[in-house]
Specification:
The protein has 111 residues and is an all-alpha fold. The chain is built from seven helices and no strands. The two termini are 26 Å apart. The mean pLDDT is 90.
């Protein structure tokens, strides 16, 4: 299993590339030192929650996106939630009920 600092560093670097930000620009926008950002991206620094929040904002992600080992899945779940949340409340509740039933059925099959 990859160390948490490496996961965080890789996720920050990935989202920085997606946003087309240099290390210098991200550090400036997050108001952290460039050397700190470089250490975080290498996986050697242990960022504080304050630093993670500061980095998440210019990257347009959440802290969960930065710390989760499969950030792509988190992004897809967020897109799904946003789509479902645009529905009227009764339709949203119906979809959530269907998902609960499907999850229950799948869990039963695995046992």
């Amino acid at each position: 299993m990859e160390p948490q600092n490496k996961i965080i560093g890789n996720n920050i670097k990935k989202f920085r590339y997606i946003k087309n930000l240099s290390q210098e620009n991200l550090a400036l926008e997050a108001e952290i030192s460039l050397s700190n950002l470089r250490q975080i991206e290498k996986g050697v620094a242990n960022p504080t929650i304050h630093t993670l929040l500061a980095l998440a904002k210019p990257l347009d992600v959440t802290v969960i996106d930065l710390i989760y080992s499969d950030a792509d899945k988190i992004q897809e779940i967020r897109k799904f939630y946003e789509l479902v949340h645009t529905l009227p409340p009764k339709a949203e509740a119906a979809i959530m009920d269907m998902l609960r039933i499907m999850i229950h059925i799948l869990q039963d099959r695995e046992q």
